[in-house]
Every structure is written in structure tokens, then in C-alpha cells.
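Q: Convert this sequence to C-alpha cells.
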Amino acid sequence: MTSEQNRHPIATRDARFEAVEPPGCRLCGGEVAFALRARDRTRSNTALHDYVACVACGSLQLERLPADPERAYGPTYYTRQQRLPATRVGGWLGWRRVRARFVLWAARRPSLRPFARAVAGRRYGRFEWFVQTATRLDDPILDVGCGSGRLLLRMAGDGFRCLVGIDPALSEETLARVAGRPGLRFERAGPEGHAGTYHLVMAHHSFEHMLAPQRAFAAMAARVAPGGWLLLRVPLAEGEAFERDGAEWAQLDAPRHLQIPTRRAVERLAREQGLVVARIVDDSGPFQLLGSGRARHAGLAAWGPLRALVARWRARALRRAARGDQAAFYLRRPEAPRSDGVQRGDAPQRPGPPHAGPTRARLT
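A:
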């Protein structure tokens, strides 16, 4: 990243971000050094925000935490503009529930996986989360940082029957939508303020917004039952888009992204909490090429109407090379040993993917 990428001739430091100055990396405690200076690309103000990089784990973090994080979002933030799905459960004549049952069953069988993809369509990636974690429709699931709640509402429509979403900034609309609805509950809380254990704990692009990431990760890990899973999806401060675009990288999202980890940082957090890194999936998409203010430097402008198609093709190549700008981490809590010395994992289990050790994969 060049100094030209970080230069803004008319700019001021935002005084709202002078409240806390961390002594080091908020993910591993290592030493940090200045990395880049970025502006808020969603607003017209010229305030700048400094990011530092950890010398040990390579993670990126906002140098000074905000005194009031909510002020960085505002009413136009995308989760506050999302339209919530209709309240009809299961779709017309329950077809969504039938589809979900078939996809979850077929996707666990290699010979039927193409049919599962065809039936699920563009939503197959979502079902893949549950296939990889052997999650059934009646397993308890927690979504940390659920935003508008749209994902859980859609999952309820698919037939999942034990869903909980937590977010400190939940809207009244979301809370009212699920009031009295069985199998779906929302709470205004963060991971540290929530109790209970779950087969699957999910954090979809919420971890990078948390003020105390080490405490938050420990709290999420504590919610995972023995034999259960933590699915962590985050942007990564590595890969081609980050290296090319620097301060103009779309997923930097200054100042809302308080820290952006690397694979190395997440693996370290998992080990500290007794979780096994079973799989890392590069699930990046064309946004890493189309969303950046420097997309013209990726050579896409010359393609005109074919720009989006070319971006999808290039994003697929980056995924295959594990060079995309985000990933899904499948982190497993080992089974607790039984009193007779036999591991519950030795008993027959419901169909699921093999987990012989950490693997790195991509979405094709």
C-alpha cells in the first residue's frame, strides 16, 4: 500500500474516536504499528481514521475505539434498511420446509449434491453451513449480532425450530415481528450478556464490530455445547483485494469495522478457547472487486456491461486460490468424555462431513 492511497489533503481527525487507546493488538496482545489512514466511504465528511496492524498476527484494527459506536452507523446503515420477510411460515403450502428437508438430506450424500444445489439455487451456500456442522432443523442455533433478524426469520420459514438472535441494537420492528412466535426469539444483548448452550453458534460479519473481541470470542465459545460448532464469518486483512486497494478496500468499512483478523489470529483465538479448527472456507464474492473505490485499477471498467460477469469470474478464481477477502471458520467443540471412558464421538452419529483435521476450502 502506497502513501498515495492514504493521502487526503483536506481532512480532520474525528474527535469522537479519541476515547480509548488500546496498548496493543485487541486479538492477541501483540505490538502494533501504523498501517493506513482511511475515511468513511459512506458519508461525505472528511474525517480520517487511523488503522494499525499487529506485528504478531497481522490483524488490522482501528487505532482508537469510539466513545459511542452507534453514532458511526446511523439510520441508513444497510441492516437498518433491510426489508423483513413475510410472516407466513414455510412458504405457500409449506414448500420452503419441504425444500429445506430435501436439501439438508441430499447435500450430505455426494451423489445427490448436484440435485441439492439445483433445488436450493442461490441459497445453497446457506444450507452448506448446516451441512458442514451436521445441524438439524430441531437443533438449537444462536445468531450473534443478528442485525435486522432477517436471516433467522428466513430460517424459521425453512423449518428451523429453535432459533435465538442477539444484538444490542435490535429494532422494535424485529422484536414485535416475533413476539409470541414459537421457536424464534430475539434479545437485546451481546454475547457476554447471554446464557445457554447451543449446537450451532453463528456470527456472520458481526465479530469485526465488537469492542472487546477477545472477551466476545470467549463468550461465543462458551455458548457452544460439547460436540457443537462456532461458525465465524469475517473479512480478512489479507488477500488480493486488501493488498491492492489499501485504504479504499471495500471491507475496511472505516470506522465501523473495529478490527479485521487474519486466519492466523482466528486460529489462535480458537485454540485458546479449546475449539478445533475443522475447516476454513473462502466464501468471498465479486463485492471485493466491485465495491472498492479503486475498482477501476482492477481492470474492470473496460468491460462495460460485462463488468459484473467478469468480477464474478475473477472472484471465483480468488476463492480457488484462497486469496479472497473473507472466510468462514468452522470451529468445533470436542465431545466431553463419558464417565466410562468412552467418547461420545465413538458412537454412531447422524450423517455429517468428515473432520479428520483442519482443511482449507473454497466455495465454487
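The mean pLDDT is 82.
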